[in-house]
Amino acid sequence: MNLATDPKRKVAAAEPGHNHPRNSGIAFNEEAVLGPTVNLSAVERRTASLPARRSVKKEYQAAWLVKAIQCIDLTTLAGDDTPARVHRLCAKAKSPLRADLVEALGLADDAPKVGAVCVYPTMVKPAVEALTGSGIPVASVATGFPAGLMPLDLRLEEIRRAVADGAGEIDIVITRAHVLGQDWTALYDEIAAMRAACGPAHLKAILATGDLKTLRNVYRASMTAMMAGADFIKTSTGKEDVNATLPVSLVMVRAIRDYLQETGFKIGFKPAGGLRTAKDAMNWQILMKEELGREWLEPDLFRIGASSLLGDIERQIEHFVTGRYAALNRHAMA
């Protein structure tokens, strides 16, 4: 069955700030979910070539790192989060690079800012208040993050409350048991209900790939989430034993490519957890560029979930500007 000719497919117009229609989902298609296979050794060979054979230096590296900053979901998901901490994080989100570095890069007239600020639902209001007028959306984790083991009605209510408080993006977690039990229709129905609860907010489906055991499960969960209406698919909560890896990411972006080919919908991708260095950011950027193209280097289709990555990126940019490496404590998170 060709997904593009599915009679149940809905049509969505492009939204302000986006150059593509929002994914409105399609009817569940078991053949598209279960049909493809994944060759583990081929995936590993392909991803090993990214850091080994690609190199970006000097001003080109600085430009890629500035672009990476614009795609960061600057995140705090700690048990001791407070409104004051969130306000400090939002200040950093609006000015992620020191003013002298922005000036040296010639970006004073269009200073970079991060893609979003990601917080717990109870911190959405303080984040929205701090980011008013900045154009930076607030993303809220929801649905019983990070395990997702809450009754569905409570998870849906958590989404609605976060959206009512001003969240423009919702990072949901899936029920891993649906994947491990191969119950793809249950997973589809769950994500579709979450997509409906999001209303105008964009839905980013966290697959928690470290819990899914196989790359085939990762592909199948990715396709199911996109069919159910996910605007982004995301690797991890950052709380699993194994978070974002290049092999898992390759499988997910290949699923995005397959879904695009069949439906015309462009789905975003977000690696999260374990990305700590500027080199990590560039490895994932290269993956996106080579597998999906230039559009997937922009924040409406690519995000990096990180809390500590920004410090190293800023440090590398300072090295480009001054020729010297600074201590990390010169680049405070907030």
Give a description of the structure.
The model is unreliable at 1-12 (pLDDT under 50). It is built from 13 helices and eight strands. Helix 3 (58-70) packs antiparallel against helix 13 (309-322), helix 10 packs parallel to helix 11 and helix 11 (246-263) runs parallel beside helix 12. It has one domain (30-329): TIM Barrel (Alpha-Beta Barrel), CATH 3.20.20.70. The protein has helices spanning 30-34, 40-53, 58-70, 83-94, 99-104, 124-131, 152-164, 176-180, 184-198, 215-227, 246-263, 278-291, 309-322, and strands at 72-75, 116-119, 138-141, 169-173, 202-206, 232-234, 268-270, 304-306. The protein has 334 residues and is an alpha/beta fold. The relative contact order is 0.15. An eight-stranded parallel beta sheet has the order 7-6-5-4-3-2-1-8.
Distance between the termini: 51 Å
Total strands: the figure is 8
Find the CATH superfamily.
Answer: Aldolase class I
- Predict the CATH topology: TIM Barrel
Rg, Cα atoms, Å: 19 Å
Write down the CATH class.
Answer: Alpha Beta
Low-pLDDT residue intervals, each spanning 5 or more residues: 1-12
Strand order of the largest sheet: 7-6-5-4-3-2-1-8
What is the number of helices?
Answer: 13
Strand residue content: 5-15%
Number of domains: 1
Task: Tell me the overall shape.
Answer: globular
Mean pLDDT: 92
Multimeric state: single chain
Helix vs. strand class: alpha/beta
CATH hierarchy: architecture: Alpha-Beta Barrel
Query: What is the helix/strand order?
Result: HHHEHHEHEHEHHEHEHEHEH
Helical residue percent? 40-55%
